[in-house]
Specification:
- This protein is an alpha/beta fold.
- The protein has 9 helices and 10 strands.
- Helix 2 packs antiparallel against helix 9 and helix 3 (about 70-80) runs parallel beside helix 4.
- The chain is elongated and about 55 Å long.
Length: about 260
């Protein structure tokens, strides 16, 4: 009986040690993540996501967030052509649908914020722009985003709601480029997101009622071929968390 007990004890000890050996894996403990996480995000998220990325890195010392900001349509095309990335944050559901329908999303996209257009004019509003109708004046030069870009599609919806047609002097590939035309004095006004106008200290943002029918939802998703899925999922969780949402709200984004 003693011999059998000793043998059983030895076997149990061996199993326990094996279990401990598994727990001493070199993987991070406590759900920690490491490595680079590459985030492709709409240009209008530049300031907010840069701050969120810094906060995420501070909370996860082993992680480095690498951003690529551009028009959502261009980013969707890059993803569908095989560009390596971990997370996609789009300024419209349409461009996200392009990625998901191509099988490049991992799970369902989540809408994390909404954004609304304003009319960006130089500081002090020298041309006295007060609404969309003023943009049709022959003496007012206007920049718009191209219609395949979310800010351009939203501008078209707003103009259609107002029953207006205007000919912009330039069509830009992302909202930052449209805003820069105002800041450089190349145009008198541009239709941009409220958040972009707020982030620039040398422009004024003029609200107009038609923008209420052209609000864009912003979805985010981990990508199917993400090289660093643990960090990608953690980053998305951070964006959706209270601290992440606080940064976005402070920038002028609306809750979904």
């Amino acid at each position: 009986m003693t011999t059998r007990r000793l043998a059983l004890f030895a076997a149990m000890t061996t199993l326990a040690l094996a279990g401990c050996g598994g727990e001493s894996d070199p993987r991070p403990q406590g759900g920690a993540v490491t490595g680079d996480v590459t985030v492709l995000a709409a240009a209008s998220l530049t300031e907010s996501f840069t701050r969120i990325g810094e906060d995420f890195e501070a909370a996860n010392p082993g992680v480095r967030v690498v951003f690529s900001f551009a028009g959502s349509s261009a980013l969707a095309n890059q993803i569908d052509q095989g560009a390596p990335a971990d997370v996609f944050a789009s300024a419209s559901p349409a461009n996200m649908t392009t990625v998901v329908d191509a099988g490049n999303g991992d799970g369902n996209p989540r809408v994390f914020v909404r954004n609304q257009l304003v009319i960006a004019v130089p500081d002090g509003n020298p041309d006295g722009v007060s609404g969309l109708t003023d943009l049709t004046r022959p003496d007012v030069k206007v920049a718009l985003c191209a219609e395949q870009v979310p800010c351009g599609a939203a501008a078209r919806r707003a103009l259609d709601t107002a029953g207006l047609r205007l000919t912009p002097v330039t069509l830009e590939q992302d909202v930052k480029a449209a805003l820069s035309k105002v800041r450089l004095g190349e145009v008198d006004a541009a239709l941009v997101y409220r958040t972009d106008a707020r982030a620039a200290d040398d422009v004024d943002g003029i609200d107009f009622p038609e923008s209420g029918g052209a609000i864009n939802d912003y979805p985010i998703v981990v990508l199917r071929n993400a090289p660093n899925k643990p960090a990608a999922r953690a980053f998305v969780d951070h964006v959706l968390s209270g601290p992440g949402q606080a940064v976005l709200t402070a920038a002028g984004f609306q809750a979904p």
